[in-house]
Specification:
The structure holds 5 protein chains of 5 kinds. In chain A, 76% of the residues lie in helices and 0% in strands. Chain A is an all-alpha fold. The longest helix of chain C is centred in the C-terminal third of the chain and has 32 residues. Chain C starts with a helix and ends in a 13-residue tail after the last helix. Chain D is mainly α. The model of chain D has no long low-confidence stretch (mean pLDDT 89). Helices cover 77% and strands 1% of the residues of chain E. A two-stranded antiparallel ribbon of chain E has the order 1-2. By secondary structure, chain E is mainly alpha-helical. The chains are: A mainly alpha, B mainly alpha, C mainly alpha, D mainly alpha, E mainly alpha. Chains A and C meet through helix 1, helix 2, helix 3, helix 4 and helix 5 of A and helix 1, helix 2, helix 3 and helix 4 of C.
């Protein structure tokens, strides 16, 4: 039973992934990616990692994908026709991806069949214990990472805004810089 | 007999003269130089006489100095020390004696030349090196003198350095000598390798105890190559006629009397090595006779007064080598000595002629000079008679002995040598007649300036003429009841060889007969020459291109210069150019630069791979991963 | 140990293969597309494949560490996406495109 | 301590020169160089002529890698140190007044590196000095060289660097063969390398030989040389040819032959043949050169090839000949290049076809030139002869034909040197040629001592030979023992 | 460990400084803080302490690299003070640099894969932003986006590798992994081996080793000058530190499974890095390739660490960092981000400003590996180790490659001293003079006191 669920979910996950790649419309890609994420969350459930599954949905579907959608909407990309690669490059991409799959699968083939025991898995509390004891430092480090990302994103946005303001203000930017920025835009 | 440090004074005197003149060049007046330069040589001569007298007392006596170690390493040790035995003192006497006379002569001849001081400096330096050559106590010192005189010869041939032809002649002389010198130095190295020493004493003592063996032949041949170069034998003789570019006294001193005979001296010095090697002796003799013939034939058709004498010198040197090659070392030395007298005389007299003719050297523009230059004429006549072997002049005795020895060894050798010496008679008298007799053929202006040379020049002429006449009398053969004094004098020197060589003894009758034939034919030739050049008044054509056959061959010196030019000089330059253009620049250097070009090319390729396209970069990364996993996990 | 695991029949190797397939699909996507946003999405796909693999291994070993690692990956993914999209929007305001193949001024 | 002073005094002086005002630079630099000469002469006076290393200093530098600051002098080193300290003052004196102070500082740096190379007894130290010598000369050639010197000097630099890196690899390899704890000490390296099997020794031989051959340079590693000599300023050329190429020969004697005797035995003949080819090759090419500097460059190559050939015969006469010939060649070639420099500055050309009749106006110059030239063509009683005789001697006894070919240099050197003399000094004055004033006092102060050295070395070479005799003897003896044991 | 706190604190402080208007004090505080961090790290020498359940372990190797990173950061601040001050977002920049320094310290002191991963990401995320910080410059944006895409892509491989290794060994701890590897690769050896290769790919990317180097030239060229300087020094130091740490602590037992690969990558890196640099005209790009090339030399030390690989790498990195910073300090004086330096820009620098030319020459000579400068000893130590382990072929390749290196470094020297000056004399700010003197002196002194800089 579980095995069939596994196969079904796997099928959906792979299908979703392929659709992400091959969809022309970015929004469609996003939808399929969300689908894949859901199937992966289901896999987590299968593996008895309920808490992780929940977090996964929240973070990926709830946050990251929304961000993607937001940017797509913001930049109005959903109806922009994306330049396609040439057929040759596409074939090369598919071949490379396929080869990577085949090669890795072949390389990672083990002689034995190993079953996964789902009984001894950490719940939210067990995970929390590990996370806040053994993995306390990385936990804090992630805060640094997020802080850095935040700072960076803000810095980029702020600089751009300031530049835009300068452009409006006119005389705030020296003549030479203005001409240069024009030159770069060409 | 070590410890005669006073020997040093003899070579050092002329060296001091050289140093004084060259350092004080501008500050020394001509008159000072005129005294100083001949003075030191005269002093050296007098000291040599002193040595000579000391050596006369004891046949086996020799003097040597302790000297100092020049250089050395391991078993090689070269000492800088001098040695005087009967052989070297003979040479010293000739060098300083004739040298002195020529110095005196030069004070007149070079009068008015702007390089007067320089000239005498070189001349003194030459005397120094020549003395080192003959007085050195080992082969390397001989080599020092050997190359040193070569240098002086180079400097003096190119004395008038503004003339590039003269410079070319000087270069030619030096380089040809160097070819011989290479042989000589290799010979010396072989001596060192074989005997473990290069000192005369050690080598000769050791050699005297040895059997004949190939290595000694090689030594003898290599040394002889040196002699070929220095004494202008086939195939290295062409520099000597060109060397006439130098001032005439130089030709007399260096290219007739002393330096060119160094080869003869060298063989006399190394006689034991040659005596041990019959093959080497044969080579010496054959080379000598061939050179004698060749040079004599060439001389027949030369029209430059000095060139004729130069070829004559080559020819006479050939005769000396014939003597050496027949093992008659003393005879060779004897001829060397008489030749020094009469050839120096002839050159100086020729110089006197040139001096009078305002530099003209072509005998076709001379004639009838006997009236204007009586002393020169007479002395030149003496010289000519001497070289022609007219008894009882010096040349007769020396040449006769050579022929006699040659006859004893090989009749053909004798025939060739005799023929060469008869040719000598012809071209010498041709020269004499064309120069001094017949109708004057020079221009009026030259004719009006004709004058006998100053005293400083004529006195040496007279003295040398006297020596040319009387020089042979010290070695009057037994046939004429003489004591063979000269041979006896040198006998101790060659004693070791004497034991090794089979003694050829001609009966007096044969000897007399040979003499008779040669002298008889000589007289006939003189008459013939007189007939052609005086009675018939035949003067050689101005246009030499009309000459045909043998005459052309002789006139153009067998085309040897052209041959060398085509076979050696040009190919060498072409080969060098080829090495430079093809091997050096195009091959080796291009290989080296090719590495750079390759790197730049690769750089360009690698650079272009960096397309700036992120998709491509990612693709390469993914492909690399695939490749990596495949190779590492699946294949290997 | 094996016998007790037979019950639910989940095979570790299956997860490995699934992860690899998802990962390879992500890689393919990165190679296949020119739109930077899609490429980011494909990279998310790759990271998720790794997540799945980690969870499978964590379950196999009964070790929470693997699952904890997944948290960190998620956090990093979020941060990367945030920064990435920030850069992208910044660039978009100049270029009016998210096509990465146009960005090839830096080369050679 | 004395030795440390000897090595590092030029460095101190170089720093001082950099601080001086420009116009005092040459004066101080030459004073410093003469001071260095004085130090080296003092060392000579204290030197015992035996085979031992004297004035040794030996302190740790990088002890975890077995690297020490270990330097000392035996006769072989001392001679080359003397050559360096003896020539540098004259090269400094020979420089134009206009040169900036960094020029003199670089020269002094160069002197330091050279003295270091000749005294280092630690493989690593040797290497460091070896490379160090390259930098100043590179900069000198680059900055004060001809218009096209950029590419040429870079080629020179990379080429020599290639060789020396090979040498470094070989030295490190040998280092690891020493008994633990590994060390770069020369004796330890000797022992370690001598114990290696033949094939390894051969590899090491070639790695080191190529390094040294490039430096000298030997055929076919020479192509950097004529261009570099030509492009470099004359002082650079003097340093390069007078002293620097001796580094290669010194390397052969100190760091190659005793290190891998078996390798030398197996491969030395090939190397020797290359050297002899080089003699003839370079001499022939010198004949057809039109540019004086190139001519002397090739002649220098011919001479050094002969030196290398003599060393490779492993004969004590050959090695001693090489020693004296190195000194002689240094003196002669520095003088020759200075002569060319004088011609160049007077007449702005060094092409022989544009020259002639200098003697008319400058007899002193012509005479000095002649003396130096005679030294170059190895006339007896000049410095060149003794060495050349000993070299040809060893070569001829090693192999007859090699000796004959090597001996051709006697003839060929006469051909090209006399040709150059005739073309520049003799003959009729060309109309185009400018006035050639005779030597100035400064030029005399350089050329006269050099000319005197040419003659003095030719007449009294024994003291010089004596210095290195014991060291060479002991080296040859050790070699022979090694061969008989093997 | 205190160093990590201090640097993190400095990062947060600089964000606070923006609000509290303390910007004027920011740079001095940053410099002092980094100095303190380095000093404190030095104080922990020989303690080899693990922190937070062995997440980080400050053994000597980690300490040495931490010190190098902190000091490099310090020197970098001295170099780019002007750039930071002139932009208004000094606090953002400082914060990001500080964070990336923290990431770098994690990378060289991690004892758990998590910390490696987080260290790399903290470093990278900060740098993605810094690379793109010249928003008005498209090239800067291009650099950022390229860096980001390829960096994340490479992270994917790194993570897959970590996951596979975890799958086989059941551990993220380096010691645990090392033990499992030693006992035959853990539960599923093939996973472990594949994991090693994939991690190798991920780290090779960070190190910009060929063929994972493509991002480097473009990103380095497009980024602001000072950021390029930072990436070339700190990132390179951190990457090789991480690389060495992982492969020496965890993977050394399975070296047959990666050694030949690293060798191949090394050779490729040496050749491609050096050769491609030959024709570069843009100096930043030239240094990018030079950076790739130096990664190649550093990789030799991974292949053949010898008895003391960590200190070899440490020394090499220190020498490299000092020389590169000096070069960038000069570069900053002769060019700016709007007028990127090309080789021509250096024409006649020898006469325009002899001091700058001298500094540049020394640093270039050091980079080229000419004795007695620090760079030479770095190369020497690397070759030394390799020859000791018999990798002669590798060393000969490196030798040939460094000859090519001489060629392109000397192009600059030739330009400085030989080509006629076109531009007016270059001015040097006083603070920079001190920095350059210090850097040049370090380059010289490192060469003399090699011993003092090596540790067991």
């Amino acid at each position: 039973m579980t095995l069939y669920a596994f196969y079904f979910l796997s099928f959906l996950a792979v299908l979703g992934a392929l659709m992400v790649v091959f969809s022309r419309n970015p929004v469609t890609s996003v939808i399929f990616l969300v689908m894949t994420f859901f199937t992966i969350a289901c896999h987590y459930m299968l593996l008895n990692a309920q808490f992780l599954a929940a977090v996964h949905i929240i973070v990926y579907a709830g946050a990251i994908m929304v961000l993607f959608l937001y940017v797509i909407m913001l930049l109005n990309l959903n109806d922009a026709v994306e330049q396609q690669k040439t057929l040759l490059l596409k074939v090369a991409a598919v071949v490379t991806g396929g080869l990577l799959m085949i090669v890795l699968s072949a390389a990672l083939r083990t002689a034995e069949v190993t079953y996964v025991d789902t009984s001894v898995v950490g719940s939210a509390s067990s995970l929390g214990k590990v996370l806040l004891s053994e993995y306390l430092l990385p936990f804090e480090a992630v805060s640094l990472l997020l802080l850095a990302a935040m700072t960076g994103a803000i810095m980029l946005a702020r600089t751009r805004r300031r530049k835009a303001e300068d452009a409006e203000g006119g005389n705030a930017v020296p003549e030479s810089e203005q001409t240069e920025s024009v030159a770069y835009e060409q | 007999m070590v410890g005669h440090e006073s020997l040093w004074i003899i070579p050092l005197l002329p060296l001091a003269g050289f140093i004084a003149i060259s350092l004080l060049n501008k500050r020394l007046g001509r008159s000072t130089v005129s005294v100083l330069a001949p003075g030191v040589v005269l002093a050296a001569f007098l000291l040599s006489v002193g040595v000579f007298i000391r050596l006369l007392s004891d046949p086996n006596m020799f003097l040597s100095t302790a000297g100092f170690t020049w250089f050395g390493s391991g078993t090689l040790s070269v000492s800088f020390s001098l040695l005087a035995d009967r052989l070297s003192v003979l040479m010293m006497l000739i060098i300083t004696g004739v040298g002195f006379l020529i110095h005196v002569y030069s004070t007149g001849y070079m009068h008015g030349d702007e390089g007067y001081n320089r000239y005498f400096a070189y001349l003194n330096l030459f005397i120094f090196f020549m003395l080192v050559l003959v007085m050195g106590s080992n082969y390397l010192l001989m080599f020092v003198g050997w190359e040193g005189v070569g240098l002086c010869s180079y400097l003096l041939i190119g004395f008038w350095f503004k003339n590039q032809d003269y410079n070319d002649a000087a270069n030619k002389a030096f380089i040809m000598n160097r070819i011989g010198d290479l042989g000589m130095i290799l010979g010396i190295i072989l001596i060192f390798a074989h005997f473990g020493s290069i000192g005369y004493e050690q080598v000769f003592t050791a050699a005297a105890l040895q059997e004949s063996q190939p290595i000694i032949t090689w030594i003898a041949i290599l040394l002889f190559i040196g002699a070929i170069g220095k004494s202008a034998q086939i195939p290295l003789f062409t520099w000597l006629p060109d060397a006439m570019a130098g001032p005439t006294p130089v030709s007399a001193l260096i290219h007739a009397a002393t330096m060119v005979t160094a080869g003869v001296y060298m063989i006399a010095r190394s006689h034991i090595l040659y005596s041990l090697s019959p093959l080497a002796l044969e080579i010496v003799a054959v080379t000598g006779v061939a050179t004698a013939l060749m040079a004599a034939t060439i001389a027949l058709r030369q029209n430059d007064i000095k060139k004729v004498l130069a070829y004559s010198t080559v020819s006479q040197l050939g005769l000396m080598f014939v003597a050496m090659g027949t093992g008659a070392y003393a005879t060779g030395m004897f001829h060397m000595m008489t030749h020094a007298f009469f050839k120096a005389l002839l050159f100086l007299a020729a110089g006197s002629v040139i001096h009078a003719m305002s530099g003209e050297q072509d005998i076709r523009r001379m004639g009838g000079l006997a009236r204007h230059l009586p002393i020169t004429w007479l002395t030149f006549l003496m010289g000519t008679l001497a070289i022609s072997g007219i008894p009882p002049l010096s040349g007769f005795f020396s040449k006769d002995e050579i022929l006699a020895n040659a006859f004893a060894v090989n009749t053909w050798l004798w025939a060739a040598a005799a023929f060469a010496s008869l040719l000598t008679v012809f071209y010498m008298f041709r020269l004499l007649f064309l120069t001094f007799k017949g109708q004057p053929r020079m221009g009026e202006e030259v004719k009006n300036h004709l004058h006998e040379s100053p005293r400083s020049m004529t006195i040496p002429l007279i003295l040398l003429a006297a020596l040319s006449v009387a020089g042979g009398w010290i070695n009057i053969p037994e046939v004429f009841g003489g004591g063979h004094a000269f041979n006896d004098y040198l006998a101790p020197v060659f004693a070791d060889s004497q034991r090794l060589m089979a003694t050829h003894h001609l009966s007096h009758a044969t000897e007399l007969m040979l003499m008779g034939i040669v002298v008889g034919v000589t007289v006939l030739i003189i008459v013939w020459a007189y007939r052609i050049y005086i009675a018939l008044g035949r003067v050689p054509e101005r246009d030499e291109s009309t000459l045909r056959g043998m005459a052309r061959l002789f006139n153009r010196k067998y085309f040897v210069d052209e041959l060398y030019d085509a076979l050696i000089v040009r190919p060498l330059y072409m080969f060098s150019q080829l090495l430079h253009d093809v091997i050096d620049r195009s091959l080796v250097d291009r290989l080296v630069n090719g590495a750079g070009v390759l790197v730049r090319w690769l750089s360009d390729v690698f650079r272009k791979v960096q397309t700036g396209n992120t998709g491509f970069y990612v693709f390469v990364m993914a492909a690399a991963v695939v490749l990596l996993i495949t190779l590492k996990m699946l294949v290997l | 140990m094996n016998s007790s695991l037979m019950q639910n029949g989940l095979v570790l190797e299956h997860y490995v293969v699934l992860s690899i397939v998802l990962f390879a699909t992500g890689v393919m996507g990165v190679l296949f597309r020119r739109n930077a946003i899609i490429i980011f999405m494909c990279i998310e796909l790759m990271l998720n494949a790794v997540n799945l693999l980690l969870v499978a291994f964590a379950t196999f070993y009964g070790d929470s560490a693997g699952q904890v690692f997944v948290f960190f990956i998620m956090a990093v993914a979020a941060a990367e996406v945030a920064v990435g999209l920030a850069i992208l929007t910044a660039l978009y305001s100049k270029l009016k495109t998210t096509d990465i193949d146009i960005l090839s001024k830096l080369k050679w | 301590m004395t030795l440390t002073l000897l090595i590092f005094w030029p460095l101190v002086a170089a720093i001082v020169v950099m601080m001086l005002k420009g116009q005092y630079a040459r004066g101080f630099a030459s004073l410093a160089a003469f001071a260095e000469l004085a130090i080296s002469l003092w060392i000579v006076s204290e030197f015992q002529t035996d085979a031992s290393f004297q004035f040794e200093v030996n302190v740790p530098w990088i002890s975890s890698l077995g690297i020490r600051y270990h330097a000392g002098l035996d006769g072989i080193s001392l001679l080359l140190v003397l050559l360096t300290t003896g020539l540098t003052p004259f090269i400094v004196l020979a420089s134009d007044k206009e040169r900036t102070r960094s020029f003199y500082a670089l020269m002094l740096l160069m002197e330091m590196a050279l003295v270091g190379v000749f005294t280092a007894l630690d493989g690593f130290l040797f290497y460091v000095f070896w490379e160090l010598a390259l930098i100043p000369i590179y900069i000198i050639c680059l900055r004060w060289g001809a218009a096209n010197s950029g590419v040429i000097t870079l080629k020179f630099f990379i080429y020599t660097l290639a060789g020396s890196l090979l040498m470094l690899v070989a030295l490190i390899y040998v280092y690891f063969q020493t008994t633990a704890p590994h060390t770069f000490d020369i004796q330890a390296l000797y022992e370690a390398a001598r114990g290696l099997p033949g094939a390894h020794q051969s590899m090491i031989f070639w790695a080191l030989f190529v390094a040294f051959a490039i430096k000298m340079p030997l055929f076919p590693f020479h192509t950097w040389q004529p261009d570099t000599y030509h492009a470099a300023p004359s002082q650079g050329t003097m340093l390069l040819s007078g002293i620097m190429l001796k580094m290669g020969v010194y390397g052969l004697i100190r760091w190659l032959i005793p290190l891998v005797p078996h390798g030398v035995q197996a491969e030395g003949t090939t190397a020797l043949i290359l050297a002899v080819i080089g003699v003839v090759f370079a001499s022939c090419i010198a004949i057809v050169q039109k540019d004086l500097k190139r001519l002397v460059a090739y002649s220098s190559m011919a001479h050094v090839s002969l030196i290398a050939a003599g060393v490779l015969t492993l004969d004590r006469i050959g090695i001693q000949g090489a020693m004296i010939q190195m000194i002689s060649h240094g003196v002669v070639v520095v003088a020759l290049f200075y002569v060319i420099d004088i011609i160049q500055t007077r007449l702005s050309t060094q092409d022989m076809s544009n020259l002639g009749a200098i003697r008319l106006e400058a007899p002193v110059f012509a005479t000095v030139f002649m003396i130096v030239l005679l030294g170059s063509i190895a006339l007896p009683l000049t410095s060149g002869f003794v060495g050349e005789f000993m070299l040809i001697n060893s070569l001829f006894r090693f192999d007859t034909w090699l000796g004959v070919f090597g001996g051709l240099t006697m003839i060929l050197s006469a051909v090209y040197m006399l040709r150059s003399y005739q073309a520049t000094v003799l003959g009729e004055k060309r109309e185009a040629a400018g006035l050639f004033s005779d030597l100035t006092m400064r030029e005399r102060s350089v050329l006269f001592p050099l000319a005197v050295m040419v003659l003095a070395l030719g007449i009294f070479p024994a003291p010089v030979l004596k210095v290195s005799e014991a060291a060479v003897d002991s080296m040859v003896t050790i070699l022979q023992q090694y061969y008989t044991m093997r | 460990m205190i160093a990590v706190y201090i640097i993190s604190g400095l990062g947060i402080l600089s964000l606070v400084a923006e609000i509290a208007n303390l910007k004027r004090w920011l740079l001095p505080v940053a410099v002092a803080g980094l100095l303190a961090a380095a000093g404190l790290a030095a104080g922990d020498w020989n303690t080899s302490q693990g922190y937070y359940h062995d997440m980080l372990r400050f053994d000597n190797q980690a300490l040495a690299f931490s010190i190098i990173i902190a000091l490099t950061g310090l020197l970098w601040f001295l170099m780019s003070g002007r750039y930071l001050r002139e932009g208004t977002d000094v606090s953002d920049h400082t914060a990001l640099i500080m964070f990336s320094l923290v990431g770098a310290v994690f990378m060289v002191s991690y004892h758990n894969m998590v910390m490696l991963f987080l260290g790399i990401e903290i470093l990278s995320v900060s740098l993605y932003v810094l690379a793109g910080s010249r928003v008005r410059d498209i090239l800067s944006g291009e650099a950022a986006i390229k860096y980001l895409i390829m960096g994340s892509f490479a992270t994917g491989f790194l993570l897959l590798g970590i996951a596979l290794i975890y799958g086989s060994t059941g551990s993220f701890n380096l010691t645990g992994i090392g033990e499992a590897m030693a006992s035959g690769g853990g539960r599923f050896p093939v996973y472990a081996y594949a994991g090693v290769l994939l991690m190798l790919v991920g780290l090779a990317f960070k190190l910009s080793a060929v063929p994972f180097h493509f991002w480097a030239p473009d990103v380095y060229q497009g980024s602001p000058l000072v950021v390029t300087g930072f990436m070339l020094t700190v990132v390179k130091a951190a990457a090789i530190g991480a690389f060495y740490r992982l492969f020496s602590l965890s993977f050394s037992q399975v070296s047959p499974h990666w050694l030949d690969v690293v060798q191949g990558i090394t050779i490729l890196t040496l050749v491609v890095g050096n050769v491609t640099a030959v024709l570069q005209q843009n100096v930043k790009r030239l240094f990018a390739y030079s950076g790739i090339a130096h990664a190649g030399y550093l990789l030799i030390a991974i292949v053949a660490p010898g008895s003391n690989g960590a200190s070899t790498i440490g020394y090499y990195v220190a020498a490299y960092v000092v020389a590169t910073l000096a070069a960038f300090a000069v570069l900053q004086c002769v060019s700016d981000d709007d007028h990127p330096a090309v080789i021509r820009s250096f024409n006649g620098l020898g006469s325009r400003n002899p001091f700058l030319a001298f500094v540049m020459t020394v640093s270039l000579l050091s980079l080229a590996g000419i004795p007695p400068l620090a760079g030479f000893f770095g190369k020497y130590l690397v070759f030394f180790g390799a020859i000791g382990e018999g990798h002669i072929g590798l060393v000969l390749t490196a030798v040939a490659a460094s000859l090519v290196g001489v060629y392109y470094y000397f192009q600059l020297i030739i330009a400085m001293y030989f080509r006629p000056a076109a531009d007016p004399p270059a001015a040097v700010p006083r603070g920079q003079v001190v920095l350059m003197v210090v850097l040049t002196a370090l380059t010289l002194l490192f060469g003399i006191f090699v011993e003092a800089l090596l540790w067991e």
